[in-house]
Design a protein that fits this description.
The complex is a heterodimer of chains A (347) and B (233). Helices cover 44% and strands 17% of the residues of chain A. Chain A has 347 residues and is an alpha+beta fold. Chain A has a five-stranded antiparallel β-sheet. In chain A, strands 6-8-9 form a three-stranded antiparallel β-sheet. The radius of gyration of chain A is 28 Å and the shape is elongated. Chain A starts with a helix and ends with a helix. Chain B is of the alpha+beta class and 233 residues long. Chain B has one domain: PPM-type phosphatase domain (Phosphatase 2c, domain 1). Helix content of chain B is 33%, strand content 32%. In chain B, α5 runs antiparallel to α6. Chain B is globular, with a radius of gyration of 17 Å. Classes of the chains: A alpha+beta (347), B alpha+beta (233). At the A-B interface, β11 and α11 of A face β1, β2, α1, α2 and α3 of B.
Amino acid sequence: MGEIDSKYRIIEELGEGGMGKVYLVEGRNIGKKFAMKLCYGEEGCRERLQLKNEAERMKELDDRRYPYLVDYFEEEEVSALVMEYVTGVPMNMYIKKHLPFDEIKTLDILKKLTALIAYLHAQNPQVIYGDIKPDNFILTPEGEIRLIDFGSALSAYGEIRGGRLSGTAGYCPPEQLAGKSVSAASDVYALGVTAVYMLTGADPLKPPYHAACEREWPNMSAGLRTLLMECMDTDPAKRPQDAGIMLRQLEKIRPGQHVRLRVFLGGLYKALLMAAIASGLLMIRAVSLNEIYMGEEKIFFSLCGIIAGWRLFRSMRERRGGFIVKREWNVVYTEKEKGCLLDDVQG
Amino acid sequence: MVAYYLCAYEKGKREKNEDSLAIHKIHTKAGEAVLALICDGCGGHHEGENASGYAVERLSAWFYDVLPGLMKGRKRRVLQASIQNMLFRIHKRLKEYGEEKQIKLGTTVSGVLILDRTYVVFWLGDTRVYRTGRKLKQLTRPHISGKGISRCLGMGSFKKADVLCGRAANGGFFICSDGLTGTVSESDIHGVTAKGAGEDRESIRKGLDTLVKTALGRGEGDNISALYLKLVR
């Protein structure tokens, strides 16, 4: 580590990932702090190749929302990647603290995350991130969301590097879990899972390791519901094909629009019900006084009563519905082998 | 309402822990629901940990995906039928897996499902469920014959689980695998869970750890799993 030691001084360990450890370092010449990923192993081993791949992906990016590449070293038994040190709160911690989010806040965050990925998908060749989850985003003190950790990013047409799956179970789409080629639609799937996590509070990193199913989703605008269902379709061809398309669809959604319509319809049904009750009372009065009641109006008010009564009955049933509002405990202890008999549980 | 839970999950002297354990709690618009499960891979057979783990994962998925929809109507028959149906599907899949790999694998299952103040206890095998409080009452009747366990998932033909329903406002439930009950007596268990023995969580936690250590000290070689649920009004 001669060259690395001569240029940088390690201050503290920041964390550990699949490829190696990440350290906070200081440039000996300039006194500025950076983040350094160190990866030990034989030359040409999978982890060092992945680190080199990460450096190549970062070199191509020219946007302040992504950490810039400072330096990259390869020595006999170690590779090192030095990049901008991004300070802030990891999004997984921010999300956990504020769960569950309402639709407006979810849309706001989702648009920012999608915009970050859309930039990658717009590169030539296209860059597929491959490991979208809240842990890989940072919320800076200025309120900006930045993307970090390009270890899983792929270029061109989604070959899986080194025969090993990248990504995280729970956020990965089925094709990535099955070891098939991934595409920009795979990133779209993971963005959908992140949105559902924010809305429901159900962590996909915990058993049963998938996003909360649609029955557990809270009330939301029809546009967002439809989009999330499309994003999380098991068939990649049915999803928005990249984050840019997803972002354009997100920008068309007006949150809360359905709420106003529902309130209006609710009021209308109540008015119809009142009219039907009033006509019923008038009919009873007319019968008791042996009077002939108005013909056409009787039919109209009866129909109003039937429609309003049906809607009231439906809404009462929905209020008693069993949609999950909150998950409190979710603990499993087992030594079952991962992947064994698992396909049934995912289905 | 289930206030808290405590659990013990100990390998003992075995190489692997063939027990699996789960505890889940959700809040829905129709009320609160808790599922506590212990599954014990059948001893002497292959991949017991995979059998018990699969059963626990499948029942956990059922709890999140199916149960909330059933809580609307609260019809006991529908709920019991759904549980039996899920157990049958687990049994069928374990049998298929065993035939594919030409091995025999099986698991017991004991579960307590609590919906607000109603409980449903279901079991197949010899994992026990007790009702705790002033007295300790065993709710499950183990399915054991001269040849060993007479009912389990994954082996033989499917036999329906026994189901018991009731109402519970206070006290608690204690579920444990045969690894504990083999060497520890019911009076030891009652000593830990009885109302007068200290209702605070910490004292019951220490009592549970002592029970496990006692079982191990008495030469218990099997895996030991236990779950305690405390109910409050």
